[in-house]
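Reproducibility note. Readers wishing to regenerate the assembly model reported in the main text can use the exact inputs given here. Chain order matters: entities are listed in the order in which they were concatenated for prediction.
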Amino acid sequence: MKRRPSFSRAVFATTIVFLSMPLLVLVLYSFNESKSGSWTGFSLRWYAQLFLDSPRLWRAFGNSAIVALSSALVATVIGTLGAIAVNWYRFPLRKYLRTITFLPMILPEIIIGVSLLIFFSGIGLRLSLFTVFVAHVSFNLPFVFLLVLARLEEFDASIIEAARDLGASEAQTLVRVIIPVSMPGIVSGFLTAVTLSLEDFVITFFVTGPGATTLPLYVYSAIRFGVSPVINALSVVMIVGTIILTWSSRNVLKYIAAK
Amino acid sequence: MEARKLIDISMNLPHCALRIEDGSDSVAGPVSATGNGLPRGRALQGGIMECGGAKKKTVKGSDVVIEHVRKSFGEFKALDDVSIDIRKGEFFSLLGPSGCGKTTLLRIIAGFEAPEGGSVLLDGQSVLPLPPDARRVNTVFQNYALFPHLSVFENVAFSLRLKRAPEAIVKARVSDYLALVELQAHASKKPSQLSGGQKQRVAIARALINEPSVLLLDEPLSALDAKLRQHMLIELDSIHDKIGITFIYVTHDQQEALSVSDRIAVMNSGAVLQIGTPQEIYEAPATDFVARFIGETNLYEADVTAVSGERVDLLTAEFGAIVVTATNPPPAGSRISWTIRPEKIRIGHTEPRAARDGINVVSGVVAEPIYSGFQSKFYVDTASGAQLKVIKQHADWSDEGPELAWKDDVWLSFSAEDAYIVEVRR
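Running the prediction on these inputs yields the following structure tokens for the assembly.
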């Protein structure tokens, strides 16, 4: 048997430790009895407090869920249609549209946050959960667009002509051919958008209004007064949730691709 | 159910002549059955089934008249005043090198491109205002264009599903057409699980199930390997015999076009150079381009010295005085191009006796013998420095004497009837 060189083993081990240690510490401390940094004994009291006595946290979570799902949905619809248009139709400024759509992805978030804030105040829109939703749609859009476009580019435009040739109207072609063909891209675009929206702090910070606190904003404000073990407990819940979601979405994608 | 009947009967039609007086279905109901719910009367006017001994069993479909069609992409003229009459039930090929406009013309008929001028008539009615889905025309695409997310069955059923046909009819029709292309066993497979030839057959079944009056085939065999191509070509021909509708077949492969077409239009640079049967195109090419593009040929220029009837005496730089034939001989003094096919030249070690008038004899040296099993090809240098291609079939060794080898002195002879004047220069 060939032995691996010790250097690459060391790199591998260090990487794994640096990646997972913080998470392990977090999980561990969520079960710590005391609030201080030293281990005093196993307890579930922070979980009890998280689920039974944290109304503001859950309100923030609710806001995040609403914004994540709605903005991901809207971004998926617009992004998908945009990708279809750019990929299969020929119209003026097509190439520029493609580049412009990618812009929010490359720009630093802080610039997007500031520009959105200026835009909203410019048109006199009061900051609220709605402005957060609009902001999230705008930064989610390029990701959906990119993922769907990547999927569409694998297919020959002639399947659209084939559908038209076989008697499908433009709408029927969209529903029966284009959307099913790009479904894996659409699903992964949607899931990416949900994730990005759930975790966004910077842009949300700029465009949020009174009473429209999202989960990342709540955590940030809570941590300013010292790390609460409740946040640790919340983090563990979210890690577990993410693992389940990732695993199931992979299976969903596989199922769609195989169908 | 009417549509179902069409297939069954069309496949079993007796080989007899049948005259259809008008759109009534009293004589040949199944023949007039149309799948798209369009008026059926027009499709049949003057339809005569030509079968008596010929290979065609039924004649259906539409005639396609292309008149003065023009199309350009920017500066590039893809079609420059193209006019073609395609008859009902014909297997018609558009043949030409890539970029000659043949695919553009097909896409105009299908409705994917709009011409800048001219008209396209199906049974006398212009189809140009109609979108692709409203035309009684279906296409078999070069790269198959199967729907990757649907099974073979659903690919073929696609157009029936669009019309919301009842499940029982869909099942029956799809299995009929899968049977036609011999793919029943693969109905539940995905396109990605099929071989190239199978994909092509799905594409054919999918296009035919709609019962178009014209089937457009855009280089359907170009992605297949040579052996499979031969096989599919024969299959296409037999499908055409069974279904009997008009086929318009686009290809750059002259062998394909020659072997299956009723008629061929040879195109180059957006123009039609010649329309004719495979024999006409091969034996009497209208232009130098056609002569060079179809098969192999020897093409030379010469001056006409004398004309008597169809017999024309030429003075060539390469072979001195020779005799050729022309149906419309140009007057003496004309500058012309003429051709002789390589397989029409006899080659041998001994000087042929001029058995009769009108045999041209040339001597030369074998510059390059190319053996290819069933035949050999020789490049023969003549005394004047010209090179002639000669193809010799290996038919009967006993008669042939020693094999011709490199640097052998040989005699070539060809008859005036096999040499044609192609173009008149002036």
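We highlight two features of this model. Chain B touches chain A through 26 residues (CB under 8 Å). Chain B has three domains: 2-49, 64-283, 297-424.
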